[in-house]
Amino acid sequence: MRVIEAGEMGMCFGVKDALEAALQRSDAPEITIWGELVHNEVVLDRLKHHGYRMVAEGERRSLPETEKMLVTAHGISDFERSQLESAGKQLIDTTCPLVVRVHESARQLERRGFHVIVLGRPGHVEVRGICGDLENYTIVSSLADVRAWPYPKLGVVAQSTFMTAIAREIVAEIERQNSDAEVVWKDTICDPTKQRVLALERLMDRVDVMVIVGGRNSNNTKQLVRSCEARAIPVHHVQGVADVDPAWFDGSETVGLTAGTSTLDETIAEVRNTLLAMSGDSAPTLNCPATESR
């Protein structure tokens, strides 16, 4: 059995910067993380051991006791930010700059008179933050959500980890069903997400089965899994080496390995080494990253 590794995978710069900023602080016990810094259980356990308090994303209704609060990489709305600051909270902001770009694009479209359509997963913390500063918006997660809306101008943005291929299909359907409206598509899907998807697409042509490493609640990891499922390629989503089952690879000649953007390098390495031990190889084959024309 041969192991082929995606040329682009694992933790993106936004997640790395947020985690590094959190772990460098010596006052962690005095800080409450406002949600999950990233959607990765291994990272969350590490932060707890570092001393941080945490408020679950679904329980952010009452203020924490600590004066200091850490805003996660997924960001929050300016409205929520002002509420927290008005309550006397000192905010430590680790919002990914590419998420900030989505917020700015959505607000800019609304100022220009567009009804904003947000492509994303309803209820996801990033989507809640994007919509939190908009007066009128519609969340669309699939083609089935597209309608003929009664607005002359429709501005479309996307959650930063949304799938590019699906976004293009949805935008085309929005244009088809709203042919009399002015439709503007602001592509706010982040480059790390795009590159990991493109690298996976190249990898899928060369493997019998895929292993994708990432947190249980990681949206971009789930998107990678769905890409494999759409191509009818056997795929296994694991959070770490403990989830790997050797029986998955019976009769397989080639196994592909990739990971979501919130996955630690050491977690990937542990899974990689386990797969290599099964294969008898000393190193994986590196699948060159795909590049996207602009």
Q: Brief description of this entry?
A:
With 294 residues, the protein is of the alpha/beta class. It has 9 helices and 13 strands. The protein folds into 3 domains: 2-10 and 191-287, 3-Layer(aba) Sandwich (Cobalt-precorrin-4 Transmethylase, domain 1), CATH 3.40.1010.20; 13-96, Rossmann fold; 98-185, 4-hydroxy-3-methylbut-2-enyl diphosphate reductase, catalytic domain (Cobalt-precorrin-4 Transmethylase, domain 1, 3-Layer(aba) Sandwich).
Describe the structure.
This protein is 36% helix and 19% strand. The chain has a 5-stranded parallel sheet, with helices on both faces. The chain has a 4-stranded parallel sheet with strand order 3-2-4-5, covered by helices on one side. It has a 4-stranded parallel sheet with strand order 7-6-8-9, with helices on both faces. The protein has 3 domains: 2-10 and 191-287, Cobalt-precorrin-4 Transmethylase, domain 1; 13-96, Rossmann fold (3-Layer(aba) Sandwich); 98-185, Cobalt-precorrin-4 Transmethylase, domain 1, CATH 3.40.1010.20. It is of the alpha/beta class and 294 residues long. It has helices at 13-23, 41-50, 78-86, 97-111, 125-131, 164-177, 191-204, 219-230, 265-279; strands at residues 2-6, 31-34, 53-55, 68-71, 90-93, 115-119, 137-140, 153-158, 182-185, 209-213, 235-238, 254-259, 285-287. Strand 4 (68-71), helix 3 and strand 5 form a beta-alpha-beta unit. The two termini are 37 Å apart.
